[in-house]
Write a structure and sequence with these properties.
This protein is an alpha+beta fold. Helix content is about 45%, strand content about 15%. It has a five-stranded antiparallel sheet, with helices on both faces. The chain has a three-stranded antiparallel sheet with strand order 6-9-10, with no helix packed on it.
Length: about 325
């Protein structure tokens, strides 16, 4: 069933093709509604591809909207014909995630300016936010200043959303993903062995898993700075105004530890700091350190069961990397 979305301002149909976006028509049709949404504070100038389309069939297009002076003001996400409902589903999951987080933690989740369909392809317009720097000089400083705030937010997420798993959900949500991972012949033996150990702990009652809100793709590229609050690197306020984007695969009843490990890898968090964060998350999950690995493996098993267009060899490499990262800090 196609996901439903909340009622949004109606925009005209926009003629669009996967391989050749009709940008002039897109600009013309979005100018008026975008200007209205922005309270006449900006007008629409150039619209162009934010990045080239990825060589995968279900990749959503991302368009950058600028004002006449060339300043970026918005980003348009548009589903591909292969998965025409993908952006609508993502916006619905974004709303559910923000609701689960509450007003304080949920401030990092952007609200769409517009939503609709383009000849059957769902789309959304989001306010433009500034990507983190790729400069070899700026990024280390930016990372050092921003990382504590992001990891503190993630700890708050686990504390706020951790819930006891209903007995009827233990088998499908945890045992089956672990079994999938343990039996996956393409997977490395150390990950399969870890999955078997987690299965035994679950069956023996030594581990009582928890659900948490799961972003599912938490890395540097999905952390942005709200450009309305960012001026210079030395501005102390900017560290408090980061946003997390791309909640397309988020799960309200998701898995713990996966987001933490992937974020730590992306931001190159040190082993001592990562161990401290894992211990903190374990406290909120009412589990010991051993079962931090169990939560992680259940998450990996679930992801493996729902790869869709994601290549299996890349999944195996990613899963083994996650296992190595958490094994390195077990002490």
């Amino acid at each position: 069933m196609k996901p439903t979305v909340d009622s949004q301002p109606v925009t005209p149909e926009i003629s669009i093709k996967r391989d050749d976006f009709e940008l002039d028509q897109l600009k013309q049709d979005l100018t008026k509604p975008l200007t209205q949404v922005l309270d006449n504070q900006a007008s629409v100038g150039e619209i162009s591809l934010l990045r080239p389309l990825k060589p995968v069939m279900d990749d959503s297009a991302k368009l950058l909207v600028k004002d006449p002076a060339g300043h970026p003001i918005a980003v348009v996400l548009c589903s591909s014909p292969v998965t025409p409902w993908l952006v609508a589903r993502g916006m619905e999951r974004t709303r559910l995630a923000k609701q689960a987080l509450g007003s304080d933690l949920g401030r990092v989740v952007l609200d769409p300016l517009l939503e609709g369909e383009i000849r059957g392809l769902s789309y959304a317009v989001l306010p433009y936010c500034q990507p983190l720097s790729n400069s070899r000089l700026v990024w280390p400083v930016q990372r050092a200043l921003l990382s504590p705030h992001v990891f503190q937010w993630l700890s708050g997420l686990t504390e706020a959303t951790a819930t006891v798993v209903h007995p009827e959900q233990v088998e499908p949500d945890f045992m089956e993903p672990l079994k999938y991972l343990a039996e996956l012949e393409a997977m490395t033996e150390r990950v399969r062995a870890g999955a078997r150990q987690a299965m035994n702990r679950l069956a023996d009652g030594k581990w009582s898993p928890r659900h948490v809100l799961m972003h599912n793709d938490l890395w540097k590229g999905n952390i942005l700075l709200d450009h309305r609050h960012v001026s210079r690197l030395g501005n102390q306020l900017w560290t408090e105004h980061f946003v997390i984007i791309d909640w397309m695969a988020a799960m309200v009843q998701g898995y713990a530890m996966y987001d933490l490990i992937r974020l730590a890898q992306s931001l190159k968090l040190g082993q001592r700091q990562l161990r401290e964060h894992v211990i903190t998350h374990c406290q909120f999950l009412s589990c010991d350190f051993t079962d931090a690995r169990s939560h992680l493996l259940a998450a990996l098993g679930y992801l493996g069961m729902h790869l869709e267009h994601f290549p299996l060899p890349r999944f195996v490499q990613m899963a083994d990397s996650c296992w190595e990262t958490i094994e390195q800090i077990k002490g």
